[in-house]
Amino acid sequence: MGLLSGNVLRRPHLSLRREWHTLLAATIGTLLTCFAVVALTVPYQFAGGGVLGLALISNYAWGISPAWVLSVGNAVLLLWGWKALSLRFALWTLYVTVLTSVAIPVFELFQYPVIGNTILAALLAGAVGGVGFGMLFRVGASSGGTDVIVMVARKRWGVDIGSMSFYINVVILFASFVVVDIEKILMGGLLLYVETVTIDRVLKSFDRRSQVLIISKRTPDIADFILNELDRSATIIPAKGAYSDRPHDMLLVVLTRRQTVDLRQYIAEIDPEAFLIFSDVTEVVGLGFKNWE
């Protein structure tokens, strides 16, 4: 049986359905990040990192809309690194860039309530922006900027993505000192920290699954239930009991939380003496789960 795969009959529709899902997530994620910039960052003059940080500096110094700097900056970076990026990544980054250039001016047309506590404003900006970026990253899209730089640098020179991204953001964050005071820089650092934590939470919450290892005398029946009722596959692993010295089969399967409950109830009915091991899995890549791209 295939290892941890879904129903292969769905495969012809997988790519189209996946891209529609990407379109929805990329659109919502982009709108959230734009809202976080316009309503929760610019009014308080918080510093930022990456190309967004440069856009904020331009806005605070000369009143230029962040949309212009983000659009031009991302367009230049895409042209620079086009050959080093996958076509899908480049196209979705282009889509997000175009949507950003439209969404920010639209959001700028409205007035937003002012939060008296700047720390609370920074926390909220980081949380909203983090959810938006997390949605983008989860479907393989990107807002451009630093993401393009580090991906090109990794492919061309083999640099570490995390370290390079961190250093770029820190340099631009502290470069904001020319237009804002140290308090705004510290609030910007808090915003970036909350944003990073939120992105991580969003990515893990979407991809979290349960791995179940099953030892039972009713292995064929359980495998049939997994295939036909849960619409998943499983891996049969030959094993041998240390105490009984008898051979038997184990089942290994990865399921959603809802499917795990259904499987547990079924096994409790047909084999109360079965031995089950449940483990949390933060990411699953393969047919029926997350795509490799």
Description:
The structure is a single chain. This protein is of the alpha+beta class and 293 residues long. It folds into 2 domains: 8-206, no CATH class; 208-281, 2-Layer Sandwich (Alpha-Beta Plaits), CATH 3.30.70.120. Helices cover 61% and strands 10% of the residues. It has 10 helices and 4 strands. A hairpin with a 6-residue loop joins strand 2 and strand 3. The chain is elongated and about 75 Å long. Residues 1-14 have low confidence and may be disordered.
Q: How many structural domains can be distinguished in the coordinates?
A: 2
Structural class: alpha+beta
Distance from first to last alpha carbon: 24 Å
The main sheet orders its strands as: 2-3-1-4
The major pleated sheet works out as: 4 strands, antiparallel
Order of helices and strands: HHHHHHHHEHEEHE
Rounded mean pLDDT is 85
- Poorly predicted sequence stretches spanning 5 or more consecutive residues: 1-14
Number of helices: 10
Radius of gyration: 24 Å
Please give a handful of descriptors for the protein shown:
elongated, four-stranded antiparallel sheet, 293 residues, alpha+beta, disordered N terminus, Alpha-Beta Plaits, 2 domains
